[in-house]
Amino acid sequence: MQTFEKNITVTADDLDQLNHVNNVRYVQWVQDIAAEHWNSKVTKHISDSYFWVLLKHTIEYKGEALLNDVLTVKTFVEKSEGVTSIRHVEIINKNTNKLLAASQTTWCLISKETKRPSRVTPEIINLFN
């Protein structure tokens, strides 16, 4: 499994009324890293042919992030079979190496032409193994 990651610095816009990162922001980061990983790997032909829709999302919150914390957001695809892929995301405080949130999402591949579910092709599977 190939891991894709990036660092994020928490800004005031990420905070809620308790002055820690709002849970909705974590969900946004999970979605953003998935899209960035996909876009970093696929060819123009693949991106012109398919898109993903979210079927199921679970997230476990394990700690809080505060203003100016540097976070590492990591993702990888666990498996792809049929029309779905299971993706994991971890959000870690870079300074303490503490896991702050862990997510598992099930995505469905959709054909842009038919707007219907499409089997995940071997070409796509190989890009993320």
Structure in a nutshell:
By secondary structure, the protein is α+β, with helices and mostly antiparallel strands. The chain is 25% helix and 42% strand.
Strand order of the largest sheet: 1-3-4-5-2
List low-confidence stretches. Answer: none
What's the shape? elongated
What portion of residues belong to β-strands?
A: 35-45%
The top level CATH class name: Alpha Beta
Q: Would you identify the CATH architecture?
A: Roll
Tally of separate domains: 1
Instruction: Give helix % range.
Output: 10-25%
Count the beta strands.
Answer: 5
CATH superfamily (homologous) name: Hotdog Thioesterase
Total count of helical runs of at least 4 residues: 3
C-alpha-based Rg, rounded: 16 Å
The N- to C-terminal Cα distance equals 4 Å
- Structural classification: alpha+beta
Give me the CATH fold name. Answer: Thiol Ester Dehydrase, Chain A
Whole-number average pLDDT?
97
Reading the helices and strands in chain order gives EHHEEEEH
Largest sheet: 5 strands, antiparallel
GO molecular function: fatty acyl-CoA hydrolase activity
Family: Belongs to the 4-hydroxybenzoyl-CoA thioesterase family.
Organism: Aquaticitalea lipolytica
InterPro entries: 4-hydroxybenzoyl-CoA_TE, Acyl-ACP_thioesterase_NHD, HotDog_dom_sf
